[in-house]
Design goal:
Helices cover 14% and strands 33% of the residues. By secondary structure, the chain is of the alpha+beta class. The chain folds into two domains: 5-56, no CATH class; 69-186, Mannose-Binding Protein A, Chain A (Roll), CATH 3.10.100.10. Strands 5, 6, 7, 8, 9, 10, 11 and 12 form an eight-stranded mixed beta sheet that branches. The chain has a two-stranded antiparallel sheet with strand order 1-2. The protein has a two-stranded antiparallel sheet with strand order 3-4. The chain starts with a helix and ends with a strand. The mean pLDDT is 84. The protein binds calcium ion (CA) (2 copies). One calcium ion binds at residues 74, 101-102, 104, 108, 185. Pfam families: Lectin_C (PF00059). InterPro entries: C-type_lectin-like, C-type_lectin-like/link_sf, C-type_lectin/snaclec_domain, CTDL_fold, Pan_app. Residues 71-185 form the C-type lectin domain. It comes from Priapulus caudatus. This is CD209 antigen-like protein A.
Length: 188
């Protein structure tokens, strides 16, 4: 089975002891998502043709707690069973030493998306100052365009919508009683 680099990174993150992966598809090797021990000399990517992709990356230091998966040095708890309000979800994250996820790179978003339903809660909010969107874990401003844009017509503030929902690679603001799956993020 051909796996994308993102799928392969997920397989590695969920495999105890995996510290790197190689996604390669050539007639000679037929390697697909080879999990491996990480070596400094292997890091990097070489795309030879559309069908030949060779990549090693350290994705799993083994330092994340049980129930968390690791991606590029951060730990993620991905809730795919239970829905909660934003505050309930945040309380759950904090109880595990984490906070609701800050989406700060396309790679991070691409890593999370295949593991979740189309819609889920992030740490984005404008609770403190209306229309000043920040990530709750860091207080940093949410980039208005990246890594995902607002959905057309959003943020629309129907009622009091103060939390950012990820929905099908776009952003929507939702209210405090809205129930969704969610992602927590922490440093190892
Ligand atoms: Ca993040
Ligand atoms: Ca909205």
């Amino acid at each position: 089975m051909v796996r994308s680099m993102t799928e392969c990174s997920v397989v590695c993150a969920r495999t105890p002891g995996c510290t790197g992966y190689n996604t390669e598809n050539t007639a000679a090797t037929h390697k697909q998502c080879e999990l491996s021990a990480y070596a400094d000399t292997d890091v990097g990517a070489a795309i030879v043709t559309d069908n030949n992709y060779d990549f090693y990356m350290k994705v799993n230091s083994g330092l994340c707690p049980a129930d968390f998966v690791e991606f590029r040095g951060n730990c993620y708890y991905i809730e795919t069973l239970n829905t909660k309000t934003w505050q309930e979800a945040r309380d759950h994250c904090i109880s595990m030493g984490a906070d609701l996820v800050s989406l700060e790179s396309p790679g991070e978003t691409d890593f999370l998306v295949p593991q979740l339903p189309p819609s889920w809660l992030t740490g984005g909010n404008d609770v403190a100052v209306d229309t000043q969107w920040v990530w709750v874990a860091t207080g940093r401003q949410v980039d208005m365009c990246a890594p995902i844009p607002w959905a057309p017509g959003e943020p629309n503030n129907i009622g009091l919508e103060i939390y950012i929902e990820f929905t099908s690679y776009q952003r929507n603001n939702v209210g405090k009683f809205y129930l969704l799956k969610y992602v927590c993020e922490k440093s190892p």
